[in-house]
Each structure stands twice: as structure tokens, then as C-alpha cells.
Amino acid sequence: MSDNIDNAISAAIRAMEDVITPTIDPKHPLAAEQAELVTNTLKLLEAQLPYRMAKATRELTETIRMSTSLLPLTKWSPAIFERLHRAIETGQAILRSGTIDQSQVNEVARSISGCVCALVRAARIAQVTEQSAIERIVLRSSETLIMDELAWFGPQGWTTSQSLPEIEQRFATN
């Protein structure tokens, strides 16, 4: 059976704009506001849908890159080193596998990000000498991920930055 979710989202948008929203009683502004929220959410999903896998893959790739840079700085905590090392290996195996399940990619990226958060917190609490190097790597490595998030949610209008690329440009795959 073919996946027609993009058609279903387009149909839902048309139904909201052409049928439901025009029939809302003007005396109920909250209902009109909610209808607009639903329509805009559907439009966001429609814009994001073709790029979901590209975004997930890039997020995993970038978190692996960051974590690989951090790994040598975790020798002071064998538990964090092992957890981060295992997470990196799992992520690399998924990327090499060829058959990528998006939910699995998202889960592993979140797992690696959780390891990085735990590392930053543990380094701060333990006040290890590597703390500032760890923080610098995380900040420097986060730029791509932050720009991805800004582009991902750009269609909602949260930013007016002219330098922000469109979602299509940011996640187009060649």
C-alpha cells in the first residue's frame, strides 16, 4: 500500500481553509484562533514531511561528530566514556546499515545527546580540568544543530532572520 500521508495533510488543510474555518461563528474568536492554529500546524507538517529523514540523519551525524570530539575528554569517568562510546558505535552502525528507520535514528540521536548532557553536568560538578574544553566543543558543535532547528520551525514564523535558509534548502539531499 502506498504512503499517501502528504495527500491526507493537503486535504486536511483544504478542508480547514475552505470548509471549516469559513463556517466559524464570528462571535467565537477563540474557535477561529484554534482553527488557525490547526491549519498552521498542518502546513508546518506539510513543509517538514519531505525532509524528516534528512533532518534526522543530519542530527545523528552531527551528534556523532560532536561526541567523537568529546570522547577523549571523558577518560576521567570510565562510566561516561563507556556509555558515550557505545552510543557513538550504535549511531555509526545505524548510518552504515543502509536500511535506516527514522524512529531508530531519532532515538539514537537523543541517546547520544543525553550522554553529552550527562557529560557536561558531570564535568561541571566534578570540576575536572577538561570542563572548559568540553563546553567549547559542545558550543561549537551545536551551531549546525541550532540552525537546523531554526530552519525546521521557520515556517511557523518564530524568527524574522533573513539569513535563515528555507527548510527546502537546509535539508535538500543530493
Briefly, what is this?
The protein has 2 domains: 5-50; 52-171, no CATH class. The chain contains 7 helices and no strands.
Radius of gyration: 21 Å
Secondary structure category: mainly alpha
- Overall mean pLDDT stands at 89
Total number of strands: 0
Shape: elongated
> The biggest beta sheet, please?
none
Span between termini: 27 Å
Please write the string of helix (H) and strand (E) elements: HHHHHHH
Sequence stretches where pLDDT stays below 50 over 5 or more residues: none
Strand content: under 5%
Please give the share of residues in helix: over 70%
Number of helices: 7
The figure for the number of domains is: 2
Task: For the structure shown, list the relevant keywords.
about 170 residues; about 0% strand; elongated; 7 helices
